[in-house]
Amino acid sequence: MSNIVLYWHPMSSATPVACALAELGVTHERVKVDITTGEQRRPDFLALNPNGKVPTMTVEGAPMFEALAIEMWLGEQYGVKSGLWPATGTPAHLQAMAWSTWSYVTYGAQLVRLQAAKDLGTPDDAHGTAARKNLDELLTLLDARLGQQPWMLGEAYSLVDLIVGSVIGYSVYIGAPVQKHPHVMAWLGKVQARPSMQIDA
Question: Coil, helix or strand for 95?
Answer without folding.
Answer: helix
